[in-house]
Amino acid sequence: xxxxxxxxxxxGAPVANNxxxxxxxxxxxxxxxxxxxxxxxxxFNRERIPERVVHAVGSGAYGYFEVTNPxxxxxxxxxxxxxKGKRTEAFLRFSTVAGSKGAPDTARDPRGFAVRFYTEDGxxxxxxxxxxxxxxxxxxxFPDFIHSxxxxxxxxxxxxxxxxxxxxxxxxxxxxxTWLFGDRGIPATLRHMDGFGSHTxxxxxxxxxxxxxxxxxxxxxxxxxxxxxxxxxxxxxxxxYHQRDLYAALERGDFPSWTLKVQVMxxxxxxxxxxxxxxxxxxxxxxxxxxIEVGQLVLNRAPDNYFxxxxxxxxxxxxxxxxxxxxxxxxxxxxxxxxxxxxxxxLGINHTRLPVNSPRGVAGGARNYGRDGAMSFxxxxxxxxxxxxxxxxxxxxTNEDTGLGVSLSGATGTYxxxxxxxxxxxxxxGALYRVMSExxxxxxxxxxxxxxxxxxxxxxxxxxxxxxxxxxxxxxxxIAKAVHERRRSR
Length: 490
Description:
Elements: H1 35-45, E1 58-67, E2 87-96, E3 111-119, E4 122-129, H2 142-149, H3 160-168, H4 174-180, E5 195-196, E6 201-204, E7 210-219, H5 228-237, H6 241-251, E8 257-266, E9 292-301, H7 306-311, E10 324-325, H8 330-346, H9 427-435, H10 438-452, H11 458-471, H12 473-488
Antiparallel strand pairs: 1-2, 1-9, 2-3, 3-4, 5-7, 6-7, 6-10, 7-8, 8-9
Helix pairs in contact: 2-3, 10-12, 11-12
């Protein structure tokens, strides 16, 4: 008898024969009762998920980030930067932008450079490119831009007419086109190119001071590029050339690395800087804001399964942690919505629970009240309550001020609304009670007491009655009495 594990169905039952279908006799038709055959074919038909609209051709690897300059904590309270030598697990996904699945990864195209840091405060995703700028400065133009770069509705080919027509109407893209068609438009390998956060982000330190920041990942392998002719030849011979090179380097222990450096601008500089510091089509000259070293990003492990970790990786620029937040960059503001929405469409509402997307650095994992939805493959919260606030020791807000409001011209992001003279939760409820007839009040009290008396916890009942007392003392007192009588009579 073989010691190999038994092949099973999805339900775990052993499979007797995986080489032949069940038939009605030796020469008869295949039987509908062959559950293993039907299950196998049905799963095969559903193996492909929707590909990314952009960045479909990708490669990825795991590694770590190590701090070399703890002095950076004077600019931000992000915990992953707070000690020299501190290591944080990381995942990096590379990609081309315009090509669909199967397109050569050596195409002349910007490369996605998306880094996830599995920090103790949750996942921080820095979703950038291998260029410090982009084609657009406003997200409202992004769908049109991508349409011009993808396949034409008639020819089903990428059309220079469309690409250049859009460019001719979009002068802000001139800087990026200059990068794209220059020598760095086609990296020789994924290891021999820089990466950038591209956008301007916001840092806040422990004292509540704000800074604007740009992220630069400088390759430690040196810059190497391909000419158009070299890329066409290599891509025609091996469409996954960059993917293969990355995995080969990891396999032989030649771990690629990048030095993370930042440019930091004091908040007060932004309004009077010589151009809009939140314009994604522009860089900050180094002479204005020099690069400051932060640490080393090292890749040292290929994923065991490409689909699980690279295809299902759902990096989202709205994944911030305490100490970093958004800026008024209009492209960034649009991406804060678009990326998460794309993942919810492509992978489903529970994509954040997949291993590659789970917050590995957080003790106990994610804690929230998300429940149900397609592919809820874990315990789905078990018996715990799925609402907040609650009285059952469920996760609660920290009440810690993030200090990460977007401030320009006096406008700030805030969780607090303006208070008006009668912004009171109880005034109008009391007024409504007092205009009711006695018969209406009696029915109201009876209905509330009938429901509230069924609650198992006395503290919940007491807090609820207090709200009615705040609206009107008589209102609350009558409810309290009615609830007491109902509970005593049980």
